[in-house]
Amino acid sequence: MERDDIIEYSLDISHTDEEGKVLRKRLWKVFWILLAVTIFEVGMGWYFAEHAGFKDILMYTFIFLTIVKAGYIIMIFMHLGDELSSLKKIILVPYCFFIAYLLFIAITEANFIFDIGWVLG
Amino acid sequence: MHNLISLHMSHNTEVLDQKTLWGGGGSPFKVSYGKLMIWFFLISDALTFSGLLCSYGFMRHKFSSTWPSANEVFVHFPFMGDSHVPLLYVGLMTFILILSSVTMVLAVEAGHRRSKKEVQVWMVLTIVGGFFFLFSQVWEWSHFIHGTEIGAVKDIIVDGEWVTQTVHGANLHYNEYGNVLFGDFFFFITGFHGFHVFSGVVINIIILIKVMKGHMDKTGHYEMVEKTGLYWHFVDLVWVFVFTFFYLV
């Protein structure tokens, strides 16, 4: 049986030692960025666990930083940034669309449920 | 970054016209069938996790008055006794997972150079990191299940009757720290993620054995390492969100 996973483009995904050096440098750089963001988050979370205040700003900061981290993981570690833009779109656009829809439904419903004072059990 | 993209693409400089591109025989996305399919699988898996986290947020909003703060639940650190250190342990778990993600992507990079020895080293380190994470999670679950010495007085159902009694820790029926749903979501979501980590470790071990036996040299490329790498990074990606929504906000 002919293998369909080797006839296409998998053989093109290769690079030389010099190119590898550049890529490795980029990967370690991303690691330090992710580590710094995580340490910052833990530090902020720890500090504000004892000191109240800035709750909303803090929450949006954490969510923003999470999306930044997710972007680095998807684009650099999962190599999506290096793929063709058509592939990027078919992966990201449907997902973002469904999540926007899900969040919209969930927030609308949550507000309704909150207002009527529904109690569980 | 842009020159890196062209560097990646430089092996494939021939420009295909629209007819050849979509006429069959080649992938218009310049990825193999398997890699495209693992991406589609990851999208569906990401939607599952999004749904779970969304319902978690829904219930947390609804029961915000009885919802416990993670900073008061997960305050332990190994070898530090009863000291109160919120977030530090889960921060360490995040660090372990990010580190194992880097070792995985370095294995993928070594695979692109067809360096069998380096692929093996990085994959072994990734598997070790995966086990470290799994055991960390066991430790944290165990602390959450056993709870504190003092416990808390809660109304719980015993043999179909509501009774008021002191409970320690949390399970699917009661939760010392607050709302029962917090425990339910915690066990389900971190458990579902932990199961992904576990299966990721198993898949990594299988691929490592295949690499060691020289299967990748026979097919002429290390794309299986890249595919399992995608799954492993996805596990890291999910944890980033679980970490934020369970422990930080």
Polypeptide structure, described:
The complex is a heterodimer of chains A (121) and B (249). Chain A has 121 residues and is mostly helical. Chain A has two domains: 16-82; 84-121. Chain A is 74% helix and 0% strand. In chain B, α5 (88-112) runs antiparallel to α9 (223-248) and α7 (180-212) packs antiparallel against α9. In chain B, 67% of the residues lie in helices and 6% in strands. By secondary structure, chain B is mainly alpha-helical. A two-stranded antiparallel ribbon of chain B has the order 1-2. Chains A and B meet through α1, α2 and α3 of A and α1, α3, α5 and α9 of B.
Overall radius of gyration of chain A: 21 Å
Total beta-strand segments of chain B: 2
- What count of domains describes the coordinates of chain A? 2
Average pLDDT over all residues of chain A:
84
| Structural class computed from helices and strand pairing of chain A | mainly alpha
User: What sequence of helices (H) and strands (E) makes up the elements of chain A?
Assistant: HHH
Q: Looking across the biggest beta sheet of chain B, what order are the strands in?
A: 1-2
Low-confidence stretches of chain A: 3-8
Beginning-to-end CA distance, first to last residue of chain B = 33 Å
Would you give the CATH topology of chain B?
Answer: Four Helix Bundle (Hemerythrin (Met), subunit A)
Structure summary:
The complex is a heterodimer of chains A (121) and B (249). Chain A has 121 residues and is mainly alpha-helical. In chain A, 74% of the residues lie in helices and 0% in strands.
Record the SSE blueprint.
The complex is a heterodimer of chains A (121) and B (249).
Chain A lengths: L16 H34 L4 H23 L7 H32 L5
Helix pairs in contact in A: 1-2
Chain B lengths: L1 H8 L8 H5 L10 H30 L7 H4 L14 H25 L3 H31 L5 E7 L2 E7 L12 H33 L2 H5 L3 H26 L1
Antiparallel strand pairs in B: 1-2
Helix pairs in contact in B: 3-7, 3-9, 5-6, 5-9, 6-7, 7-9
What characteristics describe this protein?
heterodimer; A: 121 residues; mainly alpha; 2 domains; 3 helices; 74% helix; flat; disordered N terminus; B: 249 residues; Four Helix Bundle (Hemerythrin (Met), subunit A); two-stranded antiparallel ribbon; 2 strands; elongated
